[in-house]
């Protein structure tokens, strides 16, 4: 090479384009679109058939929100009839001079309904000696766990709001209200959703063991979904205007026909589209 010749630098290869990162899809939206595509019309089919069997379910308030919250905590991991016993015991032990509350639970409730009587005095419940409160609610079961939960819940509500009034939740967007409630220790999405759905008609879904069982057998939610995930999946699956009815109808169906043991497929209005009966049901 002559001294004047300058070697040309090698042409730079254009950098290979990195493949664009795909945004991870919201699993709840993904499941809802999967179901719409491969099992079209399943959700309205289920709701229409259950409505035809059990009647149309309109929302009405069942109790004042703080009463509903305490009653719902009392239902955790026990039958509704036991929760009724514990709640009635609270009314007797910590009587208030408030107007009687009228409990109108409808078919979603597994008990016989509370008597018409004044709600408990929440301040007295909050400040009762713990061993005494445990004794009072013992007929409802799991009293040593639930008594401190009742007191800490009432304390938190009073400290944050200055009273035991939870009506403000009705003015919040439903998921924010659910977050507010679930920030209290011992209150999960199910308990929070029951309060919001039954007291305010909010479009949130409470997934209890009956709803979860029926939903998984039908294939409305994936078999591996947790109940916690199912709460949010339902928000994508069901029209907000039918959310309340969906909860009430599925829970009632789980009690009436789709029992945990020996479900009565023969008399079930959903059998033609149920994946437990036919794994390839449409
Ligand atoms: S067909 Fe059987 S398993 Fe399916 S929803 Fe009805 S009772 Fe339940």
Report what the structure shows:
The protein is an all-alpha fold. The protein has two domains: 27-58 and 205-273, Helix-hairpin-Helix base-excision DNA repair enzymes (C-terminal) (Endonuclease Iii, domain 2); 65-102 and 111-183 and 192-200, Hypothetical protein, domain 2 (Endonuclease III, domain 1). The chain is 49% helix and 0% strand. The chain has twelve helices and no strands. The chain has helices at 27-38, 42-54, 65-75, 80-93, 122-127, 130-137, 143-161, 174-182, 189-200, 209-218, 227-237, 243-256. Helix 1 (27-38) packs across helix 11 and helix 3 packs across helix 4 (80-93). It binds iron/sulfur cluster. Iron/sulfur cluster binds next to helix 10.
DSSP helix fraction: 40-55%
Strand content: under 5%
Low-confidence stretches are none
Query: What is the name of the CATH superfamily of the largest domain?
Result: Hypothetical protein, domain 2
Distinct compounds present: iron/sulfur cluster
Mean pLDDT over the full residue set: 93
> How many domain units?
2
The main β sheet shows up as: none
Overall shape = globular
CATH topology of the largest domain: Endonuclease III, domain 1
Radius of gyration: 26 Å
Q: In sequence order, what are the helices and strands, one letter per element? A: HHHHHHHHHHHH
The first-to-last residue Cα distance is 78 Å
